[in-house]
Design brief:
The chain is built from seven helices and three strands, in the order H-H-E-H-H-E-E-H-H-H. By secondary structure, it is mainly alpha-helical.
Amino acid sequence: MTLDPINFYKCLADDTRLRALMLIFLEQELCVCELVEALQESQPKISRHLAQLRQCGLLTDRRQGQWVYYRINESLPEWAELVLQISTVENPSYTEDDRARLHSMGDRPARMQSCCG
């Protein structure tokens, strides 16, 4: 899929996808179990949305054992990255509860062992 403005905004048009993308932008990288906890959604629903974001070209993933970690695609066009950055930074209340749940899991090394280990 070509990342043109129509496809970009269609990918962001769902609340779960947008919140997941913003969290990944803030944290640099998250796994499915971290997003399940932060977004309070089922694992299949989170995985489906992450697959859509990957198909849109907004995310890339890496496997480590049985776990998959997602990050913002480094090849995003500058305009798309800027929209994501401004949307995330200028709207902290949109992901405030999600970030609180994520951080209640502890710091990243401990969090990874408890949910991804």
